[in-house]
Amino acid sequence: MKKLKGFGGRNYGKPEKPAGNIEKLQQQMKEQFEKVEQEFEKIEVSASAGGGAVKVTAKCNYEVVSIEYDESLLDDREMFNDLLIAAINETMRKVTEKRNEEISKIVGVGGLPNL
Q1: Where are the domains of the chain?
Q2: Cα gap 53→24, rounded to integer Å
Q3: The pTM is what?
Q4: Residue 74 in 3-state DSSP?
Q5: DSSP letter for each residue of 75-111
Q6: pLDDT truncated to tens, each residue of the chain (115 aa)?
Q7: CATH architecture observed for domain 45-102
Q8: Please, what is the end-to-end C-alpha distance for the chain in angstroms?
Q9: Rounded-to-integer distance, Cα 22 and Cα 28, Å
């Protein structure tokens, strides 16, 4: 098949070889992302509030695993509620931070892959 040249010297027809390399890189990155997603199910992150009165542990797939709290907090439900929310929010912030850290290892600096 003969390639047709348009105005400005652009080729119309079959794509050049670099597109094949891009597809290969995309496939490798996809496989690495799938592997990291599986690892996120194993990585746990914890945070606490109220000086350790409430501690929340979650996996990096955003699944809360455990909540530990000081029994004396049950006397003041409003404080318990506030500390629980604070601990959950901090845990989710740490999960997001850990996920971004792991994903940046794949994507690399400036969006260039570290393959």
Answers
A1: 45-102
A2: 50
A3: 0.69
A4: helix
A5: GSHHHHHHHHHHHHHHHHHHHHHHHHHHHHHHH-GGG
A6: 555 555 565 555 555 556 668 888 888 888 888 888 888 999 999 999 999 999 999 999 999 999 999 999 999 999 999 999 999 999 999 999 999 998 888 777 555 554 4
A7: 2-Layer Sandwich (3.30)
A8: 35
A9: 10
